[in-house]
Amino acid sequence: MNQHLPGECSLASGALGALCLSLLISVSSCSSTDTNSTGSTAGAAGAPVAGAGPAGSAGISAAGGPSAGAGGSGVSGGSNAGSSGSNTGGSGGAAPSQPGECTPPPVGAPIQKLSLTGCMNPTNVTKFADRVIPYEVNSPLWSDSADKQRGFVIPAGKTIHIKDCAAMPSECLDSADTGKWVFPVGTVLLKNFLFNSKLVETRLFVRNDEQTWVGYSYQWDATQKDATVIPDERRRVMVDSGAGMVSWTYPNRTDCMKCHNPAGGGTLGPETRQLNRMVNGANQIDLFDAKNLFDKPPAKPYQAALVDPLVTPADDAALDKQARSYMHANCAFCHRPDDGDLGMVNIDLRLDKTLKQTNLCNADPVKGDQGVPTAKLLTPTNPQQSILWLRVNAPEDEGRMPQIGTYQVHAAGVKLLGDWVTSIKTCPQ
Ligand code: HEC
Ligand code: HEC
To answer: Which of 86, 306, 384, 402 lies in disulfide reach of 138, CB 3.0 to 4.6 Å?
Structure first.
């Protein structure tokens, strides 16, 4: 069963405005009756390298590779061509005849089938292509108990920059941003969501230019033969995981940008303390360095790894580290001082902030009391009197944190934050 949440189109703003335009053609929530599909059929002839053809195919073929993209009509006129070409979300849709090379499509004009993006393996579409560099994070985002796989593709000859706030204060809000990775224009990052080894969604987060990141969601077929791009809408489905039905909600493209906001740095997982991790017997950052992926390799020893938030803590000191790791990964990209969306809320949940600097302890809430008039954001020893805990434990649509992107309470996270609040005896002066 699909649930289309109406009105999402009007949420688009700034760089996302172009997406909205293209969706006017095909998405009912944007109340258009004109389903122009002429671009689609014509586009089928457009092989990636040719890059010629009517507007509809330009968006797709330009994604074929760096050379086609740079010279073709797709990048310079990308959003216009894409939006008039109706290759977003149409049924059937245009199809390039061969896979691209996993580069960003023109804004708002994603390739319809994941198998044709060049990001997936041509002989086994459920696996990443060889050009994708896989990675793991130490402290993942909770996503309604889905398993995840992550990877990225950066353009040949380009490198990843790691923020060093002491050397370059201007690239950071403050020292707590040290170690965040900045990907070059042309990067595509991927994330798979699986239940029981069965893919339900693949997300692409792409960097079109200095200012523009765009996220696309692909919905996997039950047969696992391919995934199809979802128009800019939230879509809730029931998925047969092979071990029971699970509810899954695909975020819309504005949701992507609320979490993947410019203040948080666009990409959210890749930072030294998230990727400082042994995978198959080797440190991932060492491996990337050996591949010359950095403009300047991070100094050793690397920043300390984020601890696994969900193991049983040995003592209160370990518990504190785990709770801070959890909030850094699940909350801090929204709860930092420069997230423009948050108005009056002034908590800072980044790892390097002291408890005092988080502005939680004994602080009055500015956004409501969750039905507990005496509650503070954090009341030492008392989760029931702490908005922080009440909000992670709240029902959907009743102020639950995070407010988007997840739809089920994370029981282990609730316990962790409850135990953490209980362990805090007094507020720091
Ligand atoms: C609730 C906030 C939230 C929403 C909504 C969200 N993401 Fe993310 N996403 C994250 C966080 C946090 C990470 C890093 C942690 C991880 O990988 O588990 C992440 C990781 C990713 C990654 C791996 C690269 C990276 O930045 O770490 C991709 C790709 C991605 N998301 C794509 C998307 C797309 C596309 C959408 C919209 C369709 C989306 N995300 C919506 C929070 C969100
Ligand atoms: C997608 C961005 C986003 C994420 C992720 C997020 N929050 Fe929030 N948070 C908000 C917004 C927006 C509000 C204001 C809510 C309102 O207006 O009711 C808020 C409010 C709060 C408040 C109340 C502040 C006050 O002064 O009233 C607390 C506490 C809070 N969040 C904790 C968390 C925790 C803990 C997490 C991680 C588990 C988290 N948030 C994740 C966006 C986010």
So the answer is: 306
